[in-house]
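Quick one: structure for this chain?
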Amino acid sequence: MTQEEVNNLDVSARYWHELEDGRIQCDLCPRFCRLREDQRGLCFVRQRKNNQMVLTTWGRSSGFCIDPIEKKPLNHFFPGSSVLSFGTAGCNLACKFCQNWDISKSREMDRLGAQAYPETIASLAKQNGCRSVAFTYNDPVIFLEYAVDIAKACRVADIKTVAVTAGYITQQARREFFSHMDAVNVDLKAFSESFYREICGGKLKEVLETLQYIRQNTDCWLEITTLLIPGKNDSEKELTAMSQWLAGHLGTNIPLHFTAFHPDWKMQNIERTPAATLLRAREIAQSEGHQYVYVGNVHHPEGASTYCPNCHAQVIQRDWHRILRWKLDYDGQCLNCGSLISGHIVGPPGISSPPRRLHLPQVAI
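Got it. Here's what it folds into:
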């Protein structure tokens, strides 16, 4: 690419305004970064250039992979289908346990990435038999303009779009972002403000508002994941409070995923999460009425499988991310009692491909 073409990859960003002191404020997420010329926000990918905000990672990806949709994790959104997963770089939180820190905290990733225009991504998904495209690896909130452009291209190609996000986004920006998503998995880090403040550099309140907004004001299919970290967010009191809040504010038919932590980045002195902790969290959520509760990052077929909330028959048997048995009709109704399983379920499922990397041309910035 010529230097002029490279420079043109930076696109004007939305959600900012000028301040009286000469800085501009980013209004995309609750951090409200205030920038002078050439400064970047904490996310690193939104930058002030020529007295406006630009997105520096539009049209660039840190990599692609074809995954089972269950890996996102989404167990009730076209289960058994394949999804084209991709991300960019940067993040607007600072989680000390980040398990994708080489991407989300990179300060070089936006300088070398695959050239990935929206139409290219939609076409790539179509060619590889993927039912959807997932914005993952880093939080798509920070590349909202790029994600929206991809979602529009995917819609033309009859490809669904999935956001894997922490939900740390402002009220005005979330309206646009989620209006273009078909499904979302929100990473609810914990259920305490102190955890968000001290370990993630964020606020719980805004994430809970996002969850309520998605549930009450959009057609997005919603699932929620919580990574349980020993001694940090796994107490019975906190898990009970979280389960009660979710049941009371969002309902009991939203799938919940409790996943195991492994030592990484700035929290390498904490042991892996025992399977018993995940199973106890599952029991607590079920006792509060939640109908679909899963465990992940451990091998536990029962905790990965789907059960009918009416007759309790196993309707989708999974081993890791593989579907072994399907006991639903084409419309997602239990073959045993006829109850409808919540979600976007059309069966029997297609055969999902094993994860595999895809390679696109590289662009040096």
